[in-house]
């Protein structure tokens, strides 16, 4: 087997932060998953629906790979990205990186990976690759997908070549840390305020706190919107809690990021934001449970309760982000 030495295959909740953790720990930079998520300005919200979709989707983070770019900017990392339409060139990029003793990140469609039991197309999935032989690729994925895993080279090629929503052209990337890595204190305040400004000023009503408010109104229609409510609503709730979000649609991760920042940034604004995101995280988990119960029972009163909670969440998160936007370095 051809493999990179010294890989820490520690798996965490979210695919992109899991991959970033693997790449950075290989360079002796060990940051918690909440810190990676927060420095990458990962928190967001989107209510996504269209005629081509079977059911609406609630998303709690920025679009794929934006988190990686933001983290590289925050820490002054060199981010080298390669994309190509050629499967042969894409594989040569992998061989080059691993041959040079460097793990690399791959963006691909998780549907094709052998170890994925839930066969759903998701073109924004990210894994760390650190080795291969003549049959399989050795990867690090999230905790729920098994951590250190392997998939056939054929399945990896199919996953990387997939086209559709959120896919990239055989995207691979590496990170290089400079000797003078930015201090966390210098990096966290711009990351927090940048995330807050984007959340408070979304360009369309489906995003940020406006998107959460819109969800509070539209969730009341979900029993009628669903082809199969007993399948679709519990599935939506499962995606909010279990699909690499760390629970509570990524709000648990952001709550913990703010708590970690409060250990070295003394600010009432930060403490207020943390308190409100702790409240929001608990309420998001309650919303997921209500949506699931509505689908299983067919009782729209559970959606009425979920809608009320979402309107409250829009207020809570807006107030949290207003406080965090006032944070000063």
From TrEMBL:
Pfam families on file: BtrH_N, DUF4872
InterPro entries: BtrH_N, DUF4872
Stretches assigned to the DUF4872 domain: 155-324
Origin superkingdom: Bacteria
Domain Butirosin biosynthesis protein H N-terminal: 14-142
Protein name as catalogued: Lantibiotic ABC transporter
